[in-house]
Amino acid sequence: AARTDFGLSADLPAEDLFVKLREGSGGHNTERWDWLGDGRYRNSLGEVETQDSLAARLAKESLKNDYIVQPRLKNHASLADFSNDALATARVLTARTEAGDFEVTNAAFRMAIGKNTVKDNFHSGGIATEVWTIQQA
Questions:
Q1: What is the C-alpha to C-alpha distance for residues 12 and 71, in angstroms, rounded to an integer?
Q2: Closest Cα partner for 108 from 133, 86, 83?
Q3: What is the rounded distance in angstroms from the CA atom of residue 69 to the CA atom of residue 13?
Q4: Counting beta carbons within 10 angstroms of the beta carbon of residue 65, is it exposed (0 to 12), middle (13 to 18) or buried (19 or more)?
């Protein structure tokens, strides 16, 4: 376990990481750290950090805000022609009914485009398409 300057012990996995604010919206302050091997990561800005220096960096940033650090998910290979390497997502929207229950109102499949390989949201110029479902009678 790496020791940070703050006395915390942190083990970052030897794999691509996705870092985001615990409470946030619009994909603001998200980072993707690609595992390079040899104990190093690189983010989308080209910055390179070792496992220890990235753990210390994240610990320092977490003194101001709560962050989620998780393994980076990747798209299925069948989406390669439609993706720029950022994770595509499905957003399901719900509404509360008059009876107090919730129901699905619609869904969208979201994809990042252009040079943004970190997030798929509209704030970053992402695109979306409606998801259609077939209802059985």
A1: 10
A2: 133
A3: 10
A4: exposed
